[in-house]
Specification:
heterodimer, A: alpha/beta, Rossmann fold, five-stranded mixed beta sheet, 24 helices, 22 strands, B: about 375 residues, alpha/beta, 2 domains, binds flavin-adenine dinucleotide, binds iron/sulfur cluster
């Protein structure tokens, strides 16, 4: 709900928090001193919550340039004896993996927690990924909360576990937990004076000689998992039908069994310590079970772990049948390894396995509702916001590519401008993979001239993604003389994850003014020529891009304009309207350019009058459409 | 009926576009950079002014003579004209004028005397030419000098009509004069305003071909970034002047940059202009001046009277040389090299036979 509720020093009080706020509270209750992250949905609200309370609880917070740097910084704090937290999304964990795989060998000092947001259903990610697999690769124990309350309690417990093992611990939270709001009972906030110490005699190195010790830690983690209060069983004694669940799938499973009327015959074993597993606890429930179903999201991680365990203990558990993603029994509409679960999906799966067909409750007027949805509601595509400078940039790039006429390839990246894949960005982007990858791909394509590939190559990258991952690729472009044009769409913020600042913004996570890292100087230092232009000046941008396309070597163009949502915050917007006497509607021949092609959501069609119109509630007053209207029918009344 | 799709498939994709600029700026979907004219997005409209106004979609040559001169021509080489002279600027001559500065002086005079309210021409720098709207004689002067790529000047015309409305003058290549004459016959939708009446004067250049913008890359490479003060293509070859002096390269080195559309063009003296201006091929201080229409004649007479230009007779012995050059170009298109006449050209059998006859006479 608010930083206020997160900060309440009233143990036992029940408040409503989101999963992300609960996690932040858990860290505060654990006495965290240092938190670093690169923002990524679904976990992007954890750090700002801590940042707001940083002064009060003496917590240092930072937005780091990427997840690897964040993890390194957090590790340093742990080395110096301070509890530290780093937060990322699954994709970000990949970025940090190189460091993670190194730090695990010797381990750490004070408790260190890595909160990773997995996004089943990829609500705000380019793909689904199961970070538990990577956590195991890095030999970090994994804990998974099933409720908002647990998001707090498990984060707190993870610090203790980490400190006990001297090993970072991963808390894997899915979108449904991060973004849900729930009832949370608050715990104590420790008020200890914290001092950082790092002596000349301390050493932390990545060496194979620490491997046996690391294995021992994992063994100890497995033993501790056996006593974890976050693993428990709900259901009849000696159940022959068993569901083993983790994360929110635990509550889905309870609900599903209730809906099927099977709560008296089947039980649910909730596992929060998904790696390493509490082996004896699981075997205890496998022994009476004859049919076992796994409910978890993204990969068959728990399932595979339990199957290996079952194979090793076949003599003890006897004849048991297993159903899960691998057998195809646990699957949503997209298939076993795709999409989120929910109580209905789980009930459908359990119903099939347990021979109790599931009939979803009849929804009153379902047919009528479906009819309205399918036939009467207009379809809504993904769209850039009204006035978004990216739209102007995309129109300019598209135009320049067509004018250039050499079939330039346009590679994309991760950010709001990923929407350049779709109609709102004129279907311009041809690749979108991971942070900064467009620039690296461009380097490769640009070196294929000896194989007769001579099309110009453009990579489009946002400002935050630029700082996160582009400089290495651009240095490569400069070093290997790749003929690429890197267009940096600089809207001066990390817009997609909620307008977090970045090194180019001149403000820190806690709101302090800091020196800006200038993209121009950075690239200048690399020897890459940079042009800066305002994307709202579309004609000028087209010209600049056309000229840059004809040049050789690596080049960069910064199209700089504040995110439309930031630009208008707290300000009076320009008034933009269509002079309906000048707009001649369909006799213009422009094919409804403003509303149909340029397609800013504020440009709409007044079908009654057969003229274009501006939706003034949506319009952010940029006036770009006025510069493009062939009839000069759009008027901008400037407020400044 | 046809629109943007056909313009793209029949003209632009076939390299018949001469970069006149007439279709640019009528809609948001046809754009230009340097000499390139491209469709950047399909508008989906079945019919379009872009197609109907383009001089390369269909063009009735007999009809054009009737429209501009109210009757057929007798000279197939140079078209209809009232007089041919040598001329040059007599008063103020534009600094960058190509030869005698006649084109610039006449257009500047037309502006000063109120014959037109503005002019569109090819301005910009030697390496970066662009369509320009000139509202004053000074701005006309600034546009002097030949740029050898196909500057789409008429894009500035479309823009100026939308904004200024008044009567405009054009200095342009033959294809641009043709585009204007075709437009004046009313081949556009009402949405595009009263364009027919918007042109008050056409000064056409002599032009045997223009070059693709790769020519500028060639120039930049040869001059190694030096400022280019003048480009000319006399018989000796491509001559480029920089502060360091003049350099000449054989014309064969730039032939590869000749636009395909120019090889399909039959008009090298702007036969439908009010006035045509070219080189003399002998004296770089003078121009060849062809006066064609009544309006053109009036302007030239007044300009001479006021001492804006100076005129002398065209040397009798040079006429056959000029006529031969013009007819050779026509013959190449209607039956020569490659053998195929572009589909958009409509000329009667009689008209074609007359070209061939006059050409044969000259061969003797
Ligand atoms: C591409 C091209 C090819 C030519 N080929 C020949 C030829 O083969 N034989 C011949 O006798 N003459 C040719 N000319 C004409 C010649 O170069 C002079 O433009 C003409 O003689 C007028 O001279 P001036 O001294 O009056 O020019 P100026 O007073 O300098 O005026 C020249 C005018 O032409 C305009 N202009 C310049 N470049 C272009 C362009 N690319 N497109 C449209 N308008 C332009 C300028 O804006 C200016 O208004 C050609 C011109 C061009 C542009
Ligand atoms: S010739 Fe002129 S009108 Fe035709 S496509 Fe080219 S620029 Fe447009």
């Amino acid at each position: 709900m608010s930083a206020h509720a997160v900060a309440l020093d009233q143990p036992g009080r029940r408040v409503v928090l989101t999963g992300n706020e609960a996690a932040a509270r858990g860290a505060i209750e654990a006495g965290v001193s240092f938190a670093a992250c690169y923002p990524g949905s679904p976990t992007s609200e954890v750090l700002p919550t801590l940042a707001r309370l940083g002064a009060r609880f003496n917590i240092y917070t930072e937005y780091s340039t990427n997840e690897k740097v964040a993890m390194e910084a957090a590790t340093a704090a742990s080395y110096a004896g301070l509890r530290s937290l780093t937060i990322c999304k699954a994709d970000g964990f990949n970025v940090a993996l190189d460091f993670a795989a190194a730090v695990c060998l010797q381990g750490i000092n004070a408790g260190m927690v890595i909160m990773v947001g997995d996004d089943p259903g990829s609500h705000s990610s380019v793909r689904e990924e199961d970070s538990r697999l990577l956590a195991r690769t890095a030999n970090f124990p994994v804990l998974e909360p099933s409720t908002v309350q647990e998001a707090k309690d498990i984060v707190k417990a993870a610090f203790d576990l980490s400190e006990d093992l001297r090993q970072p611990v991963v808390v894997r939270c899915t979108t449904r937990i991060c973004h849900a709001s729930g009832d949370v009972t608050l715990g104590d906030i420790p008020m200890v004076k914290k001092e950082a110490t790092f002596t000349r005699s301390q050493r932390f190195v990545s060496s194979v000689k620490f491997a046996p010790g690391m294995r021992d830690k994992i063994k100890r983690a497995a033993a501790l998992a056996g006593d974890s209060p976050f693993n428990y069983y709900t259901g009849p004694e000696n159940a022959q039908r068993l569901v083993i669940a983790s994360g929110p799938s635990y509550t889905y499973s309870l609900e599903a069994l209730a809906m099927l009327g099977l709560e008296d015959t089947a039980g649910v074993l909730k596992i929060s310590t998904t790696w390493p597993l509490p082996e004896e606890l699981i075997i205890k429930y496998l022994i009476p079970a004859r049919e076992v179903v796994f409910a978890e999201e993204v990969d068959s991680f728990l399932e595979d772990g339990v199957m290996v365990l079952a194979a090793k203990n076949m003599d003890r558990i006897g004849q048991t049948k297993f159903y899960g993603k691998n057998s195809g029994h646990v699957a949503g509409p997209g298939g076993p390894f795709v999409g989120e679960l929910d109580p209905d999906i789980v009930a459908g799966c359990l119903g099939k396995v347990f021979n109790t067909p599931y009939h979803p409750p009849a929804i009153p007027n379902a047919g009528e509702a479906r009819d309205i949805i399918e036939h009467s509601l207009p379809g809504r595509e993904l769209a850039l916001c009204a006035g978004c400078p990216h739209r102007a940039s995309f129109w300019a790039i598209k135009t320049a590519v067509e004018l250039d006429g050499r079939e330039a390839i346009v590679l994309g990246d991760i950010g709001c401008y990923t929407l350049g894949l779709y109609r709102t960005g004129y279907n311009l982007l041809q690749t979108v993979l991971c942070m900064g990858s467009g620039v690296g791909l461009a380097c490769g394509l640009a070196k294929l001239d000896r194989f007769n590939f001579r099309q110009p190559v453009i990579s489009v990258v946002g400002d935050s993604t630029f700082f996160h991952a582009a400089p290495q690729a651009l240095m490569n472009a400069r070093y290997n003389q790749a003929d690429i044009l890197c267009v940096i769409l600089d809207n001066e913020t990390t817009a997609m994850t909620g307008h977090q600042p970045h090194p180019g913004r001149g403000v820190s996570a806690s709101g302090e003014a800091v020196g800006r890292v200038e993209i121009e100087s950075l690239l200048g230092g690399m020897g890459i020529p940079v042009t800066v232009h305002d994307p709202y000046d579309i004609e000028g941008s087209i010209e600049v891009i056309c000229s840059l396309l004809r040049q050789k070597g690596p080049r960069a163009l910064v199209l700089r304009r504040s995110c439309a949502l930031v630009a208008v915050k707290g300000k009076k917007k320009n008034r933009v309207y269509v002079d309906q006497d000048r707009c001649i509607g369909d006799s213009c021949g422009c094919a409804r350019f403003c509303s149909g092609v340029f397609a800013c959501p504020a440009n709409i069609w007044d079908s009654e009058r057969g003229r274009a119109r501006i939706d003034e509630a949506v319009c952010n007053g940029c006036g770009v459409c006025a510069t493009l209207c062939p009839g000069k029918a759009i008027v901008v009344e400037r407020t400044v | 009926m046809a629109g943007q799709e056909q313009l793209k498939s029949c003209v632009i994709d076939k390299n018949l576009c001469s970069g006149c600029g007439m279709c640019v700026g009528l809609c948001p979907y046809i754009k230009t950079f340097r000499d390139r004219v491209k469709v950047i997005h399909p508008c989906g409209q079945k019919d379009g002014t872009c197609y109907s106004t383009c001089p390369k979609t269909f063009w009735d040559i007999d009809g054009m003579d009737d429209f501009v001169f109210q009757g057929p021509r007798s000279d197939q080489a140079l078209g209809v004209y009232k007089g041919i002279f040598f001329s040059r600027a007599a008063g103020e001559k534009a600094g960058g004028a190509q030869y005698g500065g006649t084109a610039t002086s006449l257009m500047a005079f037309a502006l000063d005397s109120g014959m037109v309210e503005g002019a569109v021409l090819a301005g910009g720098s030697a390496l970066d030419p662009r369509p320009v709207y000139a509202g004053t004689a000074l701005e006309v002067m600034a546009g002097a000098g030949s740029k050898y790529t196909a500057v789409p000047t008429l894009a500035a015309f479309n823009q100026a009509v939308g904004i200024n409305g008044g009567r405009l003058g054009l200095v342009g290549r033959p294809c641009q004069v043709e585009a204007v004459r075709k437009m004046q016959q009313g081949c556009h939708s009402e949405a595009h305003g009263n364009r027919e009446r918007a042109v008050g004067l056409t000064i056409g250049l002599f032009c045997f071909w223009s070059l693709t913008p790769e020519f500028y890359d060639f120039l930049a490479e040869k001059t190694k970034g030096e400022v280019i003060t003048r480009v000319d293509i006399p018989v000796e070859g491509l001559t480029v002047t920089t502060p360091a002096g003049a350099n000449t390269w054989p014309v064969d080195q730039i032939r590869k940059y000749i636009k395909d559309s120019c090889s399909a063009c039959i008009d090298c003296t702007s036969e439908w202009a009010d006035i045509s201006v070219g080189s003399t091929e002998s004296d770089p201080q003078y121009n060849t001046l062809v006066v064609r229409t009544v309006a053109g004649q009036r302007l030239v007479e007044r300009a001479a009277e006021k001492g804006v230009i100076e005129i002398k007779p065209y040397p009798e012995e040079r006429l056959p040389i000029l006529r031969k050059a013009a007819l050779n170009k026509k013959m190449r298109v209607i039956q020569g090299e490659g053998g195929k006449m572009p589909g958009y050209l409509k000329l009667s059998d009689q008209y074609r036979a007359e070209i061939i006859r006059q050409w044969e006479v000259l061969q003797k």
